[in-house]
Amino acid sequence: MNALKNSVRLLGHLGDDPKVRKLGSGKTVANFSIATNEIYRDSNGEKKSETTWHRLVAWGKQAEIAEKYLKKGSEISIEGKLTNRTYEDKNGENQYITEIVINQMLMLDKSAV
User: Fold this and answer.
1) A Gene Ontology MF term for this entry (predicted)?
2) H runs (alpha helix) in the chain
3) Which domain holds residue 49?
């Protein structure tokens, strides 16, 4: 049996404009989030909708494309790798983040094409 690959595919809408910055190394990074929606019926047969937010990270050329073409509300499809990281906040407390590092991104808005 083959080992499972760490791969995530999502289709959703941006919650805000990408936040793009240049690092000291010269690399460009973009951070943004997308919302995915699931519609289902509960045990009483009532239609319900549930929104889940996902943090995304794009590097290099993809970060530059995100900055140029993506805006709050843009619809995108992504494929990437699920990662976890820890950082220390201003108060010295450890914060834990789960995010998806994008490998492939497809812009679905007609205005972005």
Assistant:
1) single-stranded DNA binding
2) 60-69
3) 8-112
In-domain check, residue 37: yes
Q: Tell me the C-alpha to C-alpha distance, in Å, between residue 16 and each of 1, 45, 55.
A: 41, 33, 11
Query: Residue 13 falls within a domain, yes or no?
Result: yes
What residue type is assigned to position 112 of the chain?
A: A
Domain presence at residue 54 = yes
Determine how many CB atoms are found less than 10 A away from the CB of residue 62: 20
Q: How far is CA 17 from the centre of its chain?
A: 12
The residues pairing with 64 across neighbouring beta strands, listed in sequence order, are: none
User: Does some domain include residue 67?
Assistant: yes
For β-strands 94-107 and 47-59, DSSP reports them as: parallel
pTM: 0.83
Domain CATH code at residue 102: 2.40.50.140
